[in-house]
Amino acid sequence: MADIQGTVTQVLGNVVDVEFPAGQLPDIFDAVEVPREDEDDLILEVELHLGDSAVRTVAMDSTDGLARGVPAYATGQPIAVPVGEPTLGRIFNVLGRPIDMGDPVADDAERRPIHADAPSFEDQSPTIEVFETGMKVIDLVAPMTKGGKTGIFGGAGVGKTVTIQELINSIATQHDGLSVFAGVGERTREGTDLYHEMKEANVLEKLAMVFGQMNEPPGVRLRVGLSGLTMAEYFRDQGRDVLIFIDNIFRYSLAGAEVSALLGRMPSAVGYQPNLGEEMGMLQERITSTRSGSITSMQAVYVPADDYSDPAPVAVFTHLDSTIALERSIAARGLFPAVDPLASTSNILQPEVVGDDHYSTAREVQQVLQRYKDLQDIIAILGVEELSDDDKVLVARARKMENFLSQPMFVAEQFTGQAGRYVPIRDTVRGFRMILDGEVDHIPEQDFYMCGAIDDVLERFASRESA
Amino acid sequence: MPTLREVKNRIRSVRNITQITRALEAVSASRVRRAQARVFASRAFAEKAWEILVNIQAASKNLPLHPLLTERDAINRVMVVVITSDRGLAGAYNANILRVAQRFATRLGKPVDYVTVGRKGRDSLARLNASIVASFTDMPAEPKIADISPIARIAIDAYLNGEVDEVLIAYTDFINMLAQRPAVLGWLPLTTHTVAEQVASEYVKDVAAVSGGIQNYDYEPNAEAVVDEIVPRFTELQLYQALLEAQASEHAARMAAMKNATDNATQLTADLTLQYNKARQAAITAEILDIVGGANALQQAIDSTADDILNAESLAGHFLDA
Question: What is the DSSP letter of A448?
Answer without folding.
Answer: G
